[in-house]
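Forwarding the complex inputs:
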Amino acid sequence: DIQMTQSPSTLSASVGDRVTITCRASRSISSWLAWYQQKPGKAPKLLISKASNLESGVPSRFSGSGSGTEFTLTISSLQPDDFATYYCQHFNTYSAVFGQGTKVEIK
Amino acid sequence: QIQLQQSGLGLVKPSQTLSLTCAISGDSVSSNKAAWNWIRQSPSRGLEWLGRTYFRSKWYYDYELSVKSRIIINPDTPKNQFSLRLNSVTPEDTAVYYCARGEQWLLFDSWGQGTLVTVSS
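Prediction (whole assembly, two chains):
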């Protein structure tokens, strides 16, 4: 089974900072990687699919990159609305595996 | 705009059956494009996909191996909704349960509001 590992688990940052979250797969998953944002008490929200495809309505300060086993989510200039927990997810037609999450908190 | 509205009991006794429903608006449970999923989230297990149902000329059902012997996901076409039944629950099944829409891929673009289900006597 594929395992997804995110780092760091928690990230402290200030408004305006550039933030990068890493997700590693236990074996190559090509570009079958998505990113979600989750705020307390709410369901996750899909931000990015296929490693780098920004979903409609998601601000352009979010970007994703990577392929194979290493992926990154970057927020170019952190905004107050971005403080949340972020999850990566490997997907295909028969499997969905999530990372353990990265909490972005106010420094 | 697709909206998913969950309903069901939040407290279930051990060994009994967890039952939740997800009502769909803005899409159809019998769409030939969409798939209808259940996902849960707990501090110990994180986010965990449980299973899905979808219609492609006939109904299909896919379940996560770890719950396959205990889970049933059913569509309800007249009410445009789908349901989750998880049998023989234990405290390990305590989690927030979400319904979610996907398509061919196990990628989730719309989610219900979540239901905290506690398994306790």
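Chain A has a mean pLDDT of 97.
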